[in-house]
Amino acid sequence: MRLQLQSLLDKLCGLLCAAALFAIMVLTFFDVSGRKLFSNSIPGSLELTELLMVIVIFAGLPLVSERGEHVIFDSLDSVWPAWLVKIQKMLVHIFCAALMIALATLMWKTGAQFAEYGETTAQLKIPKAPFIYGMAIFCGITGLVHAALPFSRETASSEIEGAAL
After folding, report:
1. For labelling alongside 86, which of 46, 59, 68, 162 has CA 20 to 30 A away?
2. What is the per-residue DSSP string for the chain?
3. In the predicted model, what is the mean pLDDT of residues 102-111?
4. Which of 93, 72, 82 is nearest to 164 (CA)?
């Protein structure tokens, strides 16, 4: 069951990140080409790039958390006993889970406010609420990933091994 959820997370988030990153690449190519060849850029390309970056960052967050690829400060891990490092990492995951779920809740409320007020981007008038809701959903998923990590044998043992490096 865990491997199926992990595979689904990898595929959905990975595909979404890849598609958004590819769209940024194509948009940038045509925008720069249009500017250089025709002295005319794509209207709203900056807004589109910003919205696509939101997708890349927030869809990638659950993957980064699940794989333990965050930037970490581990200079004391080699000095502390392994049991203390394990407890510290578990507490960090629990704290991150609570923080990400709280952030998801706040973002969901902000998305509701944006939807109510009809907030849109300045130039292209794209509604902002769906992006805020998406950010909230991915923060919630990231919180759930962090909540599951302290109870995963694979993660706990690999983190302890990684701490010794």
Report:
1. 59
2. -HHHHHHHHHHHHHHHHHHHHHHHHHHHHHHHHHHHHHS-PPTTHHHHHHHHHHHHHHHHHHHHHHHT-S----TTTTTS-HHHHHHHHHHHHHHHHHHHHHHHHHHHHHHHHHHHHT-B-TTT--BSHHHHHHHHHHHHHHHHHHHHGGG-HHHHHHHHHHHT-
3. 98
4. 82
Domain that residue 74 falls in: 2-163
Contact 52, 17 (CB under 8 A): no
What's the rounded mean pLDDT across residues 47-72? Answer: 93
Count of the separate structural domains present in the chain: 1
121: alpha, beta or left? (left if phi > 0; alpha if psi -120 to 50): beta
Between CA 35 and CA 37 the distance in angstroms is 6
Its pTM stands at 0.84
State how far the Cα of 88 lies from the Cα of 9, in Å rounded to an integer: 26
* pLDDT range class, residue 6, cuts 50, 70, 90: confident
Structure tokens at 150: 């302290």
Amino acid at 104: A
